Amino acid sequence: MTIIDIINKKRLNKELTREEIEFAVNGYVNNKIKDYQMSSLLMAIVLNGMNERETIDLTDIMLKSGDIIDLSKIDGIVVDKHSTGGVGDKVTLVLAPLLASLGIKIAKMSGRGLGHTGGTIDKLESIKGFNTKITEDKFIDQVNNINIALVSQTGNLVPADKKIYALRDVTGTVESIPLIASSIMSKKLASGADIIMIDVKVGNGALMKNIDDARKLASLMVKIGKSYRKPTICLITNMEEPLGFAIGNSLEVIEAINTLKGNGPSDLLEVVMTLCSIIIGAVNKIPNNDAKNLLFKQLNNGEAYKKFEELVTNQGGDINKIRVSNKVFSIKSDKSGYINKIDALKLGEIAKNLGAGRNTIDDKIDYEVGLVLNKKVGDYVEKDEELIKVYIKEKDVNISEILSCYKIDNELEAIPKLILDVIK
Fold first, then answer.
1. CA distance 309 to 314
2. Which of 4, 23, 292, 421 gets the most CB atoms within 10 Å of its CB?
């Protein structure tokens, strides 16, 4: 068996055996297979796919490439939440402390930014001093003590996925349902939670561009979860426009804090409340409306924000030291009308190129730059009214490029639904 044989077999759209997948994955992790060879196999998978059995085998092989965290020392049902990535997606920053304030255990290992989408870890590290690298014992103790810990993936947790994930990011092999499903589920299963909740984004600003692919991905992840007897629930949400108003690390943390204080954008709040009520139903068997009443109470009485403060303090951060650039450029509309579309992907790319994201795995993030929208889809804008603020450092602002992200018409089109489906 050679890696060339395996590449050619998948290139010809043939099914790989478990042994062949294991040979490729373990060989790459152990540096016996080169980057260019693994990227060829990944591209063949992107083009020809994998069936359900191949995908479950790939998940299992990556899962067993490193440590599997034992969370049995945590008292109670442990929940992990994941997002497939979107523009302005700061849901975890709100959802996790909100649920933790109600006594639900949130033990979450998150990733860094991938392409035009932001990573939870990058956002948390925009808080001065916030430590995302803590020991497993501290991780478990912290969840037991304050119900929440948000950390980065450890070096020994699914090392196969960590290495393959980095290669996918720079070789145009991100958008593949089997690769996405196995990557997400290997990390979630290794993280040891009892219930897995996944926010599957779909639309212009997401990895999944259409609802059919989103449903395929969600169904596949639910099946993988079931094969390990781990309840997995997927919520499919719209990512045709950015979620909330802020795009960029520090800016998104500030928006999340405002949301925890009861002053968040309605779309962000809708996604958070829907996900949280599903999780509360799964953990405590509480009806949806009762769950939402509990959640609003925690936002209004300050307990949700207090829990976020507690999280930041426990992981070494200073919540009063979140910096944004003081160089701000206001872009105004060149015409009056209704906003019928905002190109989330383009705005995500613009934010990335300002320094808020990475073009290569070695790029450093500038936490202080980004964009803050003043208007969303469905809003009316006057000519010369502000559309968006751009927080910049060295990079120039291309006004026409940003204006091209907006479709403004005399008539208002139908506003698309935000919550599209639940699959479990």
1. 9
2. 23
